[in-house]
Amino acid sequence: MPIADEYIPNPNLKIWLDGKLVPVQDAKISVYDHGLLYGDGIFEGIRVYNGRIFETKAHIDRFYLSAKGLRLDIPFTPAQLTDAMLETVKVNGVKEGYIRMVCTRGVGTLGIHPFRTVSPSVFIITDRIAMFSPEMYENGMAVITASTIRNHPNALSPQIKSLNYLNNILAKIEAIDAGCLEAVMLNHEGFVAECTGDNFFIVSRGRVRTPAPHCGLLLGVTRNLIIRLARKRNLPVDEAELTRFDIYAADEAFITGTGAEVCPVVEIDKRKIGDGKPGPITRQLIADFRQYIKEGGDLGHAS
Ligand code: PMP
Q: Which one, 75, 161, 226, 252, has least CB within 10 Å?
């Protein structure tokens, strides 16, 4: 099947667009929208498990924080957007799936002036998601270190989940060229930041280690949950400056993200990590993560 066929949306799909549910064919954005012209906007990717929205508050909070970072005034309250997500999930009958919520700066002139736009636009899409193959979750994945460094936090902070993902896309191209699906990105000082669309963890001598926020990364909702789950197991967790050598010398590694969930990493730059198999702490944390989901996570709202 040609790749494009997979992406033809179900014609019955409804999109929430600026306060209304519209058929997917009618969910259109202007060519003058600054989200399209300049990547001027923000987004969230959120999971739906068993008809419930996962970690709703954390995602909503980050959405508003990203907006603040860009001086973007979202024309809806957090409560309105939470209800809008629930409505979209319900109308589309989503039980297991993914929500993409986007706010663009809206329609404006061709100049970049961000305050000469009519009004920011918000839309919510619900869909399915499958990031990696089941085999990768079972046996672990290979990654590379990208030569493209992560954005400098004083240029465009990686903490802002903006519509400008070119930094990540350039590193993802490197990964794909090397036959992988993820790449570790270093920061401007050479410390590990994160992956192109996921956070990165290693396990070394029983310690769970992940780059500290000041290393320049998105503060992933899944990252924060894994830190909480590890601490609950009394595993020491370090948020630290990590080097590429720390990864080479690690016993285990894994990535976390809303789409990816938790996936073991067993090879980097053609070097085996540990014994080249998903390690016991990684497996334990994956089991804890699945159990947390089964128990309803932060409970969200039943649809
Ligand atoms: N880093 C980047 C660059 C991301 O885009 C994402 C989300 N796909 C993550 C990390 C993981 O964040 P979360 O767990 O909140 O999905």
A: 75
